[in-house]
Amino acid sequence: MLKNIFKYPNEAGTDEAGRGCLAGPVTAGAIILPKGFSNKILNDSKQLSESKRAFLRPILEEEAISFSVCHVFENEIDSINILNASILAMHRALDKLAQVPSFIIVDGNRFKPYPSVGHECIIKGDGKFMSIAAASVLAKTHRDEYMNKIHEEFPMYNWKKNKGYPTKEHRQAIREHGLTKYHRKSFRQLPEQLTLDI
Q: Which residues are a divalent metal cation-binding (predicted)?
């Protein structure tokens, strides 16, 4: 059973999606849930089916005190590395909240201090606290929506299905068709290659 709050009312949960992908943005969600919010389906987005995430998203967006989602795209990921890009996405999502949170809880073990607001990193926090789980659902659904859209431009990579993750099918498409503008050039795209000629 997920807990409603970690320390304080009006604390924001934040999480990211797409960190391990070869293509597309890393996307962060941030959300402040009302005191007493409860939902029996809500869980870490990775534990939920696509249909359950789609069902939850409008509920979370409707009932949140405030929420936001932010993409950090490939060029910036390549410029500052994926860890920094993930933290930057979370900071930007927090920046866009309509209300300054009382505290920030972050999934994982790495974060950089956010101005004027305390934070705590929680390992597997998306399976422990509602606001982190909710942020993970928002990040995942918004990112999947974006990947479905760019799939139409480059259908041979089947991003509609793999969402940019390094599946065998995705890597085979890279071998056959090369890289697109949406691929992260700093990532090791193919296991047998240390560098790609681009």
A: 15-16, 107
Q: Is residue 75 part of a domain?
A: yes
95 is in an annotated binding site: no
Q: Are 135 and 18 in contact (CB under 8 A)?
A: no
Q: Which CATH number do you get for residue 116?
A: 3.30.420.10
Query: Is there a binding annotation on residue 120?
Result: no
pLDDT at 60: 98
Supply the mean pLDDT for the chain. 93
Predicted confidence (pLDDT) per residue in 100-127, tens digit: 999 999 999 999 999 999 999 999 999 9
The C-alpha atoms of residue 159 and residue 177 are separated, in whole angstroms, by: 14
What's the whole-model pTM score? Answer: 0.93
DSSP 46-80: GGS-HHHHHHHHHHHHHH-SEEEEEEE-HHHHHHH
Domains in the chain: how many in total? 1
